[in-house]
Amino acid sequence: MASSSTEENGGSRPAGAPAVARQAVLRVLQPAAPTRGVALVLHGGKSQSREPVEARHLSPARMVPFARHLHRAGRKHGLAVWSLRNSVRGWNGAEMTPLQDARWALGQIQEQHPGVPIFLVGHSMGGLTAVCAADQPGVEAVVALAPWLSPGTPVSAVAGRKVLIVHGTRDRWTSPAASQLFARRASAGAASMQYVALKGAGHFMLRKIGLWQTLTTGFVMKAFAESTGADVALPAAFARLLPESAVQVTL
Fold this sequence. Notes:
Blueprint (H helix, E strand, L loop, with lengths): L4 E5 L15 E5 L7 E6 L15 H5 L1 H11 L4 E7 L11 H16 L5 E6 L1 H9 L5 E7 L16 E7 L7 H11 L5 E7 L10 H20 L7 H6 L6 E3 L1
Parallel strand pairs: 3-4, 3-5, 5-6, 6-7, 7-8, 8-9
Antiparallel strand pairs: 1-2, 2-4
C-alpha cells in the first residue's frame, strides 16, 4: 500500500491554556501497514517569540529529513511518523507554548490510535519539549538531539522511559554539559539512559548528519520493536555505534 501524507490543524486547546496567535499543525507520514506505533517529531525555536511558525522556517525544515528517514525505516512495520509544527516560535517562559502544542498532538495520536506506543524525537527546544512531554500516556522512548536543557530541567517526566541524548561537542547554542548533567540526574529513574557526544559537531546537525540520523532512527526502531514485537532488522552500523550496554559514547 502506498504511503500518504496528511496535515491537520490544531483544534481546541487544553483547559486554562493561554491563547496563541496561530494553531499548531500536524503532518503525518502514514505507514504501509496498520499503525502499530507513532513517532512524533518536534522542532526547535526561540526562548521568547509569538511569531507564528511557518513551514519555511529552518527549525521545522531541519526535521523533515529526520521524519523521512524514520518513515523509510518504519513504514512497512506499521510506524507512522507525525511531525508537529508549533503554533508560535517561542517557549515563552512559564507558558511553555511548545509543550502545550505537543500535549495536544499526543492527544490526537491517542484519539486516532489508542494504545499504540509513542516515540518522541526533538531537536533543541524540541528536545526540551520531548523531555517534558515524556510523562504523557503512551510515550515509550525519547530521542533528544542537542536539547535545550538546564541544570533545573526536571527529570521526573522521563521516569520509566528509554532515553537517548545526542549532543555535539562544539555546540554553542545549547549546552552539552547541561545535557550530560541531565543524563546523570535522570539515569536512576529512566528505563534506560544513553548519551552520545558527537566530536566536533555543532548545534544544527550539519556536520555528521548521517550519525545524527542513524542514531535517531536506530534508537526509535529498536524501541518500537521492543514495544510491539515487530520483526525489525536494525542496521549493523547502529549496534556498532551504540552498543546496548553503552551508557556514554563519543563518536
